[in-house]
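Weekly structure sync, notes
Attendees: PL, DS, HV (note-taker this week)

Item 1: AraC family transcriptional regulator
DS walked through the input record. Source organism listed as Chitinophaga niastensis. Sequence as pasted into the shared doc:
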Amino acid sequence: MAMKPANNKPEIPQYVLENFRPLHRLEDDASSFGYNNIDADKKIPGFEIYSSAGLKPALGPLKSAFYRISITISGSVDVQLGLEHFQHRPGTLSFTFPGQVFSKSNIREDTFGYYILFNADFLEEIITPDRITTEFPFFDYAGVPFIQLEPMEIAAVADFACKINEELQQHKPGCEKAIRLYLYLLLLDVKRSYLAQQLHITATDTRNTYLVPRFKKLVSQHFLTKRRVADYAALLGVTPNHLNRTIKESTGQTASSAISDMLVQEAKAVLRYTDTSIAEISYQLDFSDPAGFNRFFRERTGQTPLAFRKNA
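Item 1 (cont.): predicted structure, written out as C-alpha cells:
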C-alpha cells in the first residue's frame, strides 16, 4: 500500500456519548431500564446505563470516545475488539475504551444483560482519568478485555447495575455520587476476579500465548501509524520472519494481512457512520490517492467503499 506522509491530517471520527444512542437502540424501544426513555432531568452528564432490551441486533465496527462495560446474563453475543474475537455467554463481561474499534453481531433472541457507558472524567472524584487504565487493566491495550465470571460473581455485578438503575429512577439527593461509587465498586469487584484469574500477558508465556495476542493488541493500538510487519517485530523483539511464521501458524493469516484487516475495520467504521468523502477517508488513512484506497478496500472486502456505504 502506498501511503502519504501524515501531516496535519484531521482525526478519524469517534462517537461521543451525547450522540451515540441512535446507533445502539431501536427506534421503537419502549423499555425503561436505566437511560432508556428516562426523564431529561434525571440524566447525568458523562454516564449512561441500559439493559439489552431494545438493543439493535448488530453494531459497528465503530470507534467511540468513552469507556464501555458489557455484561451478559443469558444468551450469546459475538464481539470483536480490534483484532480479537470473543463470544459472550452467560457470565461474560467485556470492556472497551476510547479510540478502540469494536463491533457486536449475532445477538441471540434470548440474550439479556446490561451495558454501561461513561466518559473518562466521570469518575474523577474517585480516580483521575489518567489512572483508569493503571487501576483497571482490562481498559488498556496491554490487558485482557474479556472475563468469564462464576454465577455468584456475575450476580454481584448485575446487582450493582440494578442499584445504579434504582438511583437513576428514584433520583434522590446524592444520587450522582452514589452512581459513581457503585460504578467504581463494580469495577473494583471485577478487577478482583480479573487478578484472581491471572488474566494478563507476560513475556514468560509460551510463544503462542504471548506473541500472538500481544501482536494483535499492538496492531489494534498502532495500525494508523505503523503499517509494516517490521515495525511490530521491533516492538516485540523478534525478527519479521519469526513474527510472520508464528502469526501464520496460529491464525492462518500473515501478519501483514492482520494489519490490513484492522485498517479495513477502521475504513468500515468511517464509511458506515460518517458522511466523510471517499477522498477524505483515503487521506485520513494515509493512502497516496483515492484510487489506491478503492483498490485496497475492494481487494479486502469484495466491494468498493461507495458500495459498502450504500449497503451498510
